[in-house]
Amino acid sequence: MKFAMINGISIHYQFDDAGAAKPLIVFSNSLATDFRIWQDCVDDLSADYSILRYDKRGHGLSGMGTPPYQIDDNVNDLVALMDHLGLSGAVVVGLSVGGLIAQGLYHARPDLAKALILCDTAAKIGNAEMWNDRIAIARDGGLAALVDANMQRWFSPAFHADRATELHGYRAMFTRTPLDGYIGTGMAIRDADFRDQAPNIAVPTVCVVGDQDGATPPDLVRGTADMIPGAKFELVKDAGHIPCAEQPAAIIKIIRDVMAGL
């Protein structure tokens, strides 16, 4: 396990270094998950690319910091982590709030991102009422009060029917997320809005979504693709909000296609 003191917080990360000549992929994951959600992708890609994964503040083995957070806190953590490791020019793959972080990273430090793969995310996710309702439920009943609805959004009915063991693991990942980390990040998502800045993205961008995503539905993700000049839109069949876990082969192909295009 690797840790770095970033902006006063211990950040847990994994850097698989394939060598200086190999292109770099940076993964940023979703709310109430840790960086293990990318493992199937990493198993395939790590022979050909250097890969950075990390747990954002309030998640996994990283420190809490002082919630509530703003999306700039998350962006600045990734910027500082990449600077700490001497990394730049990455293909940044962000899922859900990780996609917001990827967008913010590009807007803050375009030298760090030479392409974006925005998975199951948008320039703005949800509205204040939705997030305030979820935060109130979490405060009253803990994450156990939210887990059933979230698993319905995260995974397709087929995943629920056929992959019960994995589903149990994802339920555990969700409910074991620190409550303050969930609430603080929920507030960051609630207040994040990159719609005005989206037309300024000038690197190759692919917006990806599971066709059964109940958290960031396909039309929302397509709308963000329409805001970004030249962005591509990819629909992943038979997947909910976490296609890197449910249909990793499709995500791997998209990543490899982007890398080949560079």
Structure in words:
The protein is α/β, with parallel strands linked by helices. It has helices at 39-45, 71-85, 97-108, 128-141, 147-154, 157-162, 164-175, 179-191, 218-227, 243-246, 248-261, and strands at residues 2-6, 9-16, 24-28, 50-54, 90-95, 113-119, 205-210, 232-236. An eight-stranded mixed beta sheet has the order 1-2-4-3-5-6-7-8, sandwiched between helices. Strand 3, helix 1 and strand 4 form a beta-alpha-beta unit. Helix 1 (39-45) crosses helix 11 and helix 2 crosses helix 3 (97-108). The longest helix is centred in the first third of the chain and has 15 residues, at 71-85.
Rounded to an integer in angstroms, the radius of gyration calculated over CA atoms is 17 Å
Give the N-to-C terminal Cα separation. Answer: 31 Å
- The coarse overall form would be globular
* Poorly predicted runs: none
Mean pLDDT: 98
Percentage of residues in DSSP E strands:
15-25%
| Biggest sheet: strand arrangement | 1-2-4-3-5-6-7-8
Spell the H/E element sequence.
Answer: EEEHEHEHEHHHHHEHEHH
DSSP strand count: 8
Name some characteristics of this structure.
262 residues, alpha/beta, 8-stranded mixed β-sheet, 11 helices, globular
